[in-house]
TrEMBL record:
GO molecular function, one term: metallodipeptidase activity
Organism: Bremerella cremea
Region forming the signal peptide: none
One Gene Ontology biological process: proteolysis
Record protein name field: Membrane dipeptidase
Classification via Pfam families: Peptidase_M19
InterPro entries: Metal_Hydrolase, Pept_M19
Length: 420
């Protein structure tokens, strides 16, 4: 789910203030025409159709809640739904074998004390989807489930909690989310918690508080993947210091390619390799296109200033005008492939996956407009010289390895606890 970027005090954006003035209406470095003409080779089709394709983050549930009053009768995804990124026909076209459905709720609900209950409502919506479309989806909670379900032609449907605000500082709530089927939790979303820092908020904890350490340790015990998308670099390092199991980034890209605080710095990528973790690349234009990442920061700073000066309503009006005058460069599929290349270079191909953020973002690169477009990732990787083994790993097998290791660590902790 998108969230506006970091504060204007951040030195890394000092040179971006004027960048948007001349870049925004320029043709992307990899032309849209080229990507529109990308065709699937027989080899790409063969690999993709026989591969297990897993995506780490899709926000369809929030779209159904907001646009369809949480009703699959109002938004019947068995039918084409061109106003959103996800429906059953396009999932089939993309050969999606497993999907982590984000049960996102706004970080502000943590302050209101309703985040946990609203998250349970979102989990119930995932289960409702599985119930309404039993020939298309089946709930999965283990690696074995994914393998079994995907072989039937159904989408193995997993649950990912987006933000530790959802547990409302309660390990009992964390346990309950696991019992309800959640198999990863992003430690923060857009705002700091008392126990962990967000990448898009001012530093507060400087890593993890003692309770934050307990959260990670309990996730290890449960067999729930620790997701450190959205968290600050210091919290990334702290989580890797504490976790006995590999960590994941469910929907983040490479910071050296596009300087967004939502992306992963190289020093962290090196530790992802060393700790056998996984970065699932995000497709959002504002995170993957370098110029668009700079615009994202400029826009955030401008909006915050306007809110202070003229109030929220007038700020929204002025920002709408600014957006029309300064449209985002969407980029192309090649921008995402550039991030994959960098992640592979620094962390290794065994530590890269896909976490597109479909239905959680408002701008996507040309060539990656919806869930039908995953085969073009396969085509692009072939064209860049990746082997079939590497492509299969990136498409889904790397996630399976990490998740299985998380399950094994949980079993080891349980076994150790039963022996004096």
């Amino acid at each position: 789910m998108i969230v506006l970027g970091s504060s204007g005090t951040d030195a890394r954006y000092a040179d971006s203030r004027n960048l948007w003035r001349w870049t925004w209406n320029q043709t992307p470095p990899n032309s849209a025409k080229t990507d529109k003409q990308m065709t699937l080779s027989p080899e790409a089709k063969r690999i993709h159709e026989s591969a297990l394709v897993i995506d780490g983050h899709n926000d369809l549930m929030w779209e159904i809640r907001e646009k369809g009053s949480s009703s699959f009768e109002k938004i019947d995804i068995r039918q084409p739904q061109p106003k959103i990124h996800t429906d059953i026909p396009r999932l089939k076209e993309g050969n999606v074998g497993a999907q982590f459905w984000s049960v996102y709720v706004p970080a502000t609900l943590g302050d209101k004390g309703t985040a946990f209950l609203t998250t349970l409502e979102q989990i119930a919506l995932v289960k409702k989807m599985v119930e309404i479309y039993p020939d298309q989806f089946e709930l999965a909670t283990t690696v074995d489930d994914i393998e079994r379900i995907s072989k039937t032609g159904k989408v193995a449907s997993l649950i990912g909690v987006e933000g530790g605000h959802c547990i409302q500082e309660s390990l009992a709530n964390l346990n309950h989310l696991y019992d309800q089927g959640a198999r990863y939790m992003t430690l923060t979303h857009s705002k700091n918690l008392s126990w962990a820092d967000s990448s898009t908020d001012d530093e507060q904890t400087g890593g993890l508080s003692p309770f934050g350490v307990e959260v990670v340790q309990q996730m290890n015990r449960l067999g729930m993947m620790v997701d450190i998308s959205h968290v600050s670099p210091k919290t990334m390092h702290a989580a890797m210091d504490v976790s006995k199991a590999p960590i994941i980034f469910s929907h983040s890209s490479a910071r050296s390619v596009a300087d967004s605080p939502r992306n992963v710095p190289d020093d962290v990528l090196k530790r992802v390799h060393d700790t056998e973790g996984l970065v699932m690349v995000n497709f959002y234009s504002a995170f993957v296109v370098p110029e668009s990442a700079a615009r994202y920061s400029v826009r955030f700073d401008l909006k915050q200033k306007l809110i202070e000066e003229v109030g929220q309503a007038e700020a929204d009006v002025r920002m709408a005008k600014w957006d029309r005058e300064n449209p985002m460069d969407l980029g192309t599929i090649n921008d995402v492939l550039d991030h994959i290349d960098h992640l592979v270079k620094v962390a290794g191909w065994e530590h890269v996956g896909l976490g597109a953020d479909f239905d959680g973002v408002d701008a996507l690169p040309v060539g990656l407009e919806d869930v039908s477009r995953y085969p073009y990732i396969t085509q692009g990787l072939l064209e860049r010289g990746y082997t079939e083994e590497q492509i299969r790993g990136i498409l889904g097998e790397n996630l399976m390895r990490v998740m299985r290791k998380v399950e094994e660590v949980a079993a080891e902790i349980k076994q150790a606890g039963t022996n004096p």
